[in-house]
Amino acid sequence: IFASGPLDVRKLGGDVGRRLAAAPEAASIRPVEVAVYDAFYPQRFWEEYMVHRYFNMPVRTDANCLVFSELPGHAYFRVKNATRPVYATDLRCIAFWRQLHAASGMAGIRDYVQSSLQDMFPLQEIPAPYLDTFIVHADGWHLMDYGAPQRNVSIASIYSWAASPLGDHANLCLAGEAYYGISYGWTAGAWR
């Protein structure tokens, strides 16, 4: 089982890597870049704004390039006060986060997010996180490429191809959401 995306397939090299990378299915999967900031807070400042305390509270906004924030209510995350204040796929916002990180490091990211959250929750005092991370994933998730239909490739054909991408190597399969472009895609490779 090769559980990695097409960008890594292209780096494999050797006969197997070249055959996988040359397949029209592999060429038909487009990675989507994602900027992500995760933070753990000493208290749950968002909780009084939640409609239901045990569901996630998604906040979607293009203001301040936070784009999609998740403030969880699920029991597992409640114990840790884990959040995802930034999940950005907008290219303009990814460039913004990269520039801010290059200029100011984690302190700049942290301060900007804290100020942005303060704007979103003006009646709360937003504490500093006790732990946080920032990363830009080159292949945070995947879409089918615009040219796929011209290659006679569909979501279904990528799904079938990934189960045995070399045909003659029955012991090789590709697993992960890149190869299963449907809602439960990230688990389908393991099931098969």
Structure summary:
By secondary structure, the chain is α+β, with helices and mostly antiparallel strands.
Can you walk through the features of this model?
This protein is of the alpha+beta class. The chain contains seven helices and five strands; from the N terminus they run αααβββαβαβαα. It has helices spanning 6-9, 14-22, 24-27, 75-80, 91-120, 155-163, 185-191; strands at 29-40, 57-61, 67-71, 82-88, 131-144. The strands form two sheets. The chain has a three-stranded antiparallel beta sheet. Strands 2-3 form a two-stranded antiparallel sheet. A hairpin with a 5-residue loop joins strand 2 (57-61) and strand 3. It starts with 5 loop residues before the first helix and ends with a helix. The relative contact order is 0.21.
Using brief descriptors, characterize the structure shown.
single chain, 192 residues, 36% helix, alpha+beta, 3-stranded antiparallel beta sheet
- Uncertain stretches: none
The number of helical elements comes to 7
Main sheet summary = 3 strands, antiparallel
Strand count: 5
Order of helices and strands: HHHEEEHEHEHH
Percentage of residues in strands = 15-25%
Shape: elongated
Alpha-beta classification: alpha+beta
- Helix percent reads 25-40%
Oligomer: single chain
Mean pLDDT: 84
The value of Rg in angstroms is: 20 Å
Major beta sheet, strand line-up: 4-1-5
Distance between the termini: 10 Å
